[in-house]
Amino acid sequence: MKPYYRGIKLIKRQVLNIQVPEPGSSDNINKNENIILEFSNVEKTFFEGRLKDYALKNISLGVKRGIITGLIGPDGAGKTTLMRLAAGLLTPDTGQISALGMDVTSDYPAIQATIGYMPQRFGLYEDLSVQENLELYADLHSIPEKSRPSRYQELMKMTGLAPFTSRLAGRLSGGMKQKLGLACTLIHTPRLLLLDEPTVGVDPLSRRELWNIVQHMVKEEGTSVLLSTAYMDEAERCEEVVLLYEGKMLGNAPPGQFKQHLNGKSYIVSVSGIKKRPVQEKIADYPSVIDAVLKGGGIRVVLDVESPPNIEKLLPGVKGVSIEPTPPSLEDSFISILRSRQKKNERTGKKPSRIDVRYQLDNSNENVIKVTGVKRRFGDFYAVKGVTFEVRRGEVFGLLGANGAGKSTTFRMLCGLLPASEGTMRVAGADLRDAPAEARSHIGYMSQKFSLYGSLSVKQNLLFFSSAYGLSGSNRGARIKWALDEFDLLQLADSNSIDLSLGYKQRLAMACALMHHPDILFLDEPTSGVDPIARREFWSRINSLAEEGVTIMVTTHFMEEAEYCDRLAIMADGEILALGTPEEIKAGQQSSDNPDPNMEDAFISLITGKENENS
Amino acid sequence: MRANNMVIQSKSAQHGSSILRMRGLIRKEFLQILRDPSSIAIAFLMPVFLLLLFGYGVSLDAEHVPVAVVVEDPSLDTANFTSGFYGSRYFNPVTVRDIGTAEQELRNHSVDAIIYLRSDVARQLRSPEGAHIQVIINGVDANNGRIISGYVQGIWSKWLGNRALARGEKINLPVKVEQRVWFNRELRSKNFLVPGLIAIIMTLIGALLTALVVAREWERGTMEAIMVTPVTIRELLLGKILPYFILGIGGMGLTVAMAVWLFDVPIRGSLWLVFVTSSLFMFAALGMGLFISSVTKNQFVAGQVAIIATFLPAFILSGFIFDIGSMPWMIQMLTHVIAARYFVAILQTLFLAGNIWSVVIPNCLALIVMGVFFIGLTWKRSVKRLG
Hints:
The complex is a heterodimer.
Chain A: H1 2-16, E1 35-48, E2 51-64, E3 68-72, H2 79-86, E4 94-99, E5 102-103, H3 108-114, E6 116-118, H4 130-140, H5 148-159, H6 174-185, E7 192-196, H7 204-221, E8 224-229, H8 232-236, E9 240-245, E10 248-253, H9 255-260, E11 266-271, H10 276-285, E12 289-295, E13 298-303, H11 311-314, E14 321-325, H12 330-344, E15 367-378, E16 381-392, E17 396-401, H13 407-414, E18 422-427, E19 430-431, H14 436-440, E20 443-446, H15 458-468, H16 473-486, H17 502-513, E21 520-524, H18 532-547, E22 551-555, H19 559-562, E23 567-572, E24 575-580, H20 582-588, H21 599-614
Parallel strand pairs in A: 3-8, 3-9, 6-7, 7-8, 17-22, 17-23, 20-21, 21-22
Antiparallel strand pairs in A: 1-2, 1-4, 4-5, 9-10, 11-13, 11-14, 12-13, 15-16, 15-18, 18-19, 23-24
Helix pairs in contact in A: 4-6, 6-7, 15-16, 15-17, 20-21
Chain B: H1 2-15, H2 18-35, H3 37-57, E1 65-71, H4 76-86, E2 91-96, H5 99-107, E3 113-117, H6 121-126, E4 134-137, H7 142-166, H8 189-219, H9 222-227, H10 233-262, H11 271-296, H12 299-317, H13 329-335, H14 339-352, H15 357-381
Parallel strand pairs in B: 1-2, 1-3
Antiparallel strand pairs in B: 3-4
């Protein structure tokens, strides 16, 4: 916890100059347990054709005045439906919703006039400038002309958008758009603020700035906030957390209370001198282990029993291992709650078996990707300004960076989708300039949007992709059978892929990318929006692929996923700012202010360092 | 500090100014129109393009029709007859030696008709049975064929008359037809195409553009954001109708100016009546556009529906090109639900005939009914809700 808050203070001074509440300070406000938004026995169903689909089942909760309440849960849990119900944009089938002392269902125009609501994709008018967007919302809220200039100034200062007031909203970066959206929502200083995943797809730096603005509103204006998020670290910053899963509420309590049941069940296993990934796989297979993930220099383990584990039993015959207890995190709690639910529903969490590869591991020091001095120019603009790195066989290599840092361009060049303007790129021994087709036959690519054919069934998708990769006859049949079996898709073989849940879509997309036994797998933000259980399964598959000698290159916005990588490169403005193992990168950003930075701290410190250098 | 804010807030929620909100919405809409090249293109470039295309490219008049004239045995009589073709602006005759070549030319479309005078035509002319002149017309385009046939007959009867006159004889025709063409004396097809085209263009601006821009707000999520503000449905609808009404009237002015100055279409009715009736039509078209987008909420679908439900019917069933009177009765019934039909009738009357109230008033009433129906329906359907 400690270094976390230090990180915020750091930003406070550097970027925004906003007072950040101390962890305990808001307790004084919520002593009077005033409820500003209340759901009682709310149900909401949608019809998908003739199928009745529960979006929310029997929800009762109270959002308290003057604090930030976090709404957490994976995609499809019903977060957006709940937000829209609270904003009076949807009507509940049964149950009652009241906000600010009014009934939301009947008094919705009054509710809509009073609250602040920021939908997931905040509807900015992209062909209007920052100032014009603000003016529109000022007009809509009838802000008196006299008080406008000072209000605009205040909001622009708070969001750091002051230098960009005449820029068209469509030309802003993702993070800046979200900040402008928030500024428009805050123009009339609402008492209740509903924010639907305000930080999704936003880089860590902008995420911190958004949080600072929200916390400022809570502290200075007494605003009450309901904020939905998929990031566990954000949930930790809320005073109160509501956990939604498949339309049901699994809990509503302060984060500390959520974690209580895991006291004495969370441990860090440190290893030295051996590869961490096999150790993690081994621990994850152990019966009483709920969760085992790579974290920092070791492996974070959550058990379902309170006795400290016997390291000899856990890892028989492995040397150089030590185990230490650690305070439980909200993510530990979330995973354990979800896992126990899944057991109740008797859903099988099939562990991936070893995936076969064409080339067996022969030389682990062989570089399969070699990028030297690569630049990419679009007109006068350099999206990538000379990057050099190498990736070894069987390595999991992460590419991190804010929106517009040049990640996607680098990725597209490596996949042979975009030629480099300068420099050389060798992939699986083939030069991308001379033999792009040869290089491409060694590559599997899974895009962020999964690129599946929605109206084709699972099987037809597999058939199509295997044919596209040149597989045919019995070879193809065997491969499809393998994919259905391996990814647990057999029962869904004839369902249209558009009807699959996000987690299954992701599995199918990965299966499609693996049909031709690629040596290198490119994954472009493969886990955004996928629930944590599915995410763990996904990483477990990646791990076993890497163990088999498949080289994995991945981009991600999740800082904890960066820790799962063997090595990573942090990019900004088309350059690589840091390259190395997660430990090396974190160690490189140690300072007297922050002797033990986590990945997010390191990332932000690198990016702000770069920005200061530029200005 | 906090309490203060609450008071201000609740006051402004109750006494928020509708005028201020409307001003914001309308200003936003105009900024978007100015900055979005596609709106400008639909509102101004497309009308100009269509008007030029139809004004210059499409003509229902048959002029300079290429005909092959085959005279097997030229004589003074035949020369007398064929001179009628050479002197006419409707025909471009070419002399061909034999019928075989002429047929070949008809087949490869270098001529549209053949006038065939056999070798015995001069002799036949002097016999009591009279002469046979063969006329072969390319009938693929029936309309064109009919026009050519009429022209040939005209030349023939003129020649007959002249011939009788020259001989001092009287031809005895039982009925003499004296033709007078009203309203469009020169029978220029432009004079009636261009006013109809204006109605089509207005349908395009009114229905297609509104359908697209409202659907765009749903698609981009701006509608969801704007709903959770004090704005009312009435303000949202007016905020769309007024800017596009002004844009539509602007497009109207442009096309009327082009019609008068570029295409020399006479305008015999009053300009103010043109303005009033187009305003009525604009409301009906905007209403349809709003209704379509409130149902589809998706730009692509809204565009498709708008084209299929408003633009194409306006093109085919409004009487702009195809005469409604000659359609089967079922289709004629169908044309009554096409708003453009009434507007085409009004505009053709106002341009070519003048303020004929017995035409203008019933058609205006029909437009009012349609406008009220569609805007009312959209209003009723619209709630500040998503589901």
